[in-house]
Structures are given as structure tokens and as C-alpha cells.
């Protein structure tokens, strides 16, 4: 992983798990459930751009929180509308 602090993975995962919404990370042709710590560990690096697709009862709050936590750790993220 390109300099990504393991604490960033835990922080992103904990943030995602605080919401009922489905939170999916799109990268190339792969889709990763952000609530899966293993999926995140095998996928996240600092030098990539990410897309998040978030749907569910609390999606507005989840979109804000997920964008904030990715940016907090210096990661580029686009949250799909």
C-alpha cells in the first residue's frame, strides 16, 4: 500500500459501519463493500482516485461523513450523486 496508514483503513471502515446505507467503493471494474475491512485492506492506496456509491436511509449523512474521512487521510474521492 502506497504509504497508507493502517489507521486510515480502520477509520474509513468504522465511519462506514456507523451508517445503515450501502457504501460501495468503485475502482476500475471492481466494487468493494467499504464495510469490509478485508476488502479495504486489499484495495486502498494513497495514489488513486476513488468513487463512492452510497444508497440508503441515511445516505446524505453517510455521503458527507465518507467524503470527510477519505479527505482526512489525504485520499481523493468522488461521491456519486
Structural class: alpha+beta
Helical residue percent?
Answer: 40-55%
Counted beta strands: 4
Shape: globular
Number of helices: 3
Instruction: Report the sheet-strand fraction.
Output: 25-35%
Find the CATH topology: Histidine-containing Protein, Chain: A
Sequence of strands across the biggest β-sheet: 2-1-3-4
CATH class: Alpha Beta
> Please, what is the CATH homologous superfamily?
HPr-like
What is the H-and-E element order? HEEHEHE
Arithmetic mean of pLDDT: 91
Q: Mind telling me which CATH architecture this is?
A: 2-Layer Sandwich
Please indicate the count of domains: 1
C-alpha Rg, in Å?
11 Å
Uncertain runs are none
**Spatial gap, N to C terminus:** 28 Å
Main sheet summary: 4 strands, mixed
Layout of helices and strands:
Blueprint: H1 6-17, E1 22-27, E2 30-33, H2 37-43, E3 49-55, H3 59-72, E4 76-79
Parallel strand pairs: 3-4
Antiparallel strand pairs: 1-2, 1-3
Helix pairs in contact: 1-3
Structure description:
The chain has one domain: HPr-like (Histidine-containing Protein, Chain: A, 2-Layer Sandwich). The protein contains 3 helices and 4 strands. Helices cover 41% and strands 26% of the residues. The mean pLDDT is 91. It is an alpha+beta fold and 81 residues long.
Amino acid at each position: 500500500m502506497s504509504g497508507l496508514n493502517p489507521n486510515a483503513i480502520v477509520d474509513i471502515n468504522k465511519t462506514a459501519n456507523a451508517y445503515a446505507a450501502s457504501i460501495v467503493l468503485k475502482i476500475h471494474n471492481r466494487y468493494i463493500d467499504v464495510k469490509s475491512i478485508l476488502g479495504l485492506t486489499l484495495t486502498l492506496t494513497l495514489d488513486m482516485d476513488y468513487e463512492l456509491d452510497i444508497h440508503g436511509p441515511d445516505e446524505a449523512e453517510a455521503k458527507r461523513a465518507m467524503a470527510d474521512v477519505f479527505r482526512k487521510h489525504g485520499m481523493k474521492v468522488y461521491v456519486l450523486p
